[in-house]
Amino acid sequence: MLSNTLLTALNDQIKHELYSAYFYLSMSAYCDAHHMPGAASWLKVQAQEEQAHALKFFAYIQERGAAVTLQAIDQPPTTFGSLLEIFEQVQKHEAFVTSLINGLYELALKENDYPTQIMLQWFISEQVEEENTSAQIVDMLRMVGPQGQALFMADAQLGRRAQG
Ligand SMILES: [Fe+2]
Ligand SMILES: [Fe+2]
């Protein structure tokens, strides 16, 4: 059985994943309104991935015979800076989510909850990928610099990410 501490932490993580989706969707809306359709599309796919993460925790709690409790999701920021600044924020947010996942894992270890440790291993690997992807985009945008033509190409490149 899931302990109450772990159940609370897993329910909290649903909120964090949904906030991530909200955050990226808000960035997507901003990019769309500021003539960056490629980044808008990339961020919308990213938001869908975060929703899928929330649903993984949702299903896991239920599979363990416990109850999901949904919480209020904070309003995300609505204005963002340059394309580089946006992806720096993505990178920073993913590092924060990694710290949350690591915290959950530490809790599952402390409570000797083996199934939760196994479930979280998928998220630990996923966070490696998320941090790596956002770091690569930040590197690319730093290399591109602020010139319009190069940014136009970088935005088009981001737009090639397939729908999730
Ligand atoms: Fe996530
Ligand atoms: Fe993520």
Structural features, described:
It is a single chain. The chain contains 5 helices and no strands. Helices cover 77% and strands 0% of the residues. The protein has one domain (4-158): Up-down Bundle (Ferritin). It has 164 residues and is mostly helical. It binds fe (ii) ion (2 copies).
The CATH level-2 architecture is identified as Up-down Bundle
Uncertain ranges = none
CATH fold category name: Ferritin
CATH superfamily: Ferritin, core subunit, four-helix bundle
| Name of the CATH class | Mainly Alpha
Characteristic terms for this protein:
164 residues, elongated, 5 helices, binds fe (ii) ion, mainly alpha, single chain, Ferritin
In short:
The protein has 164 residues and is mainly α.
What is the topology?
Elements: H1 4-33, H2 37-63, H3 83-110, H4 114-144, H5 148-158
Helix pairs in contact: 1-2, 1-3, 2-5, 3-4
The site of one fe (ii) ion has 5 residues, from helix 3.
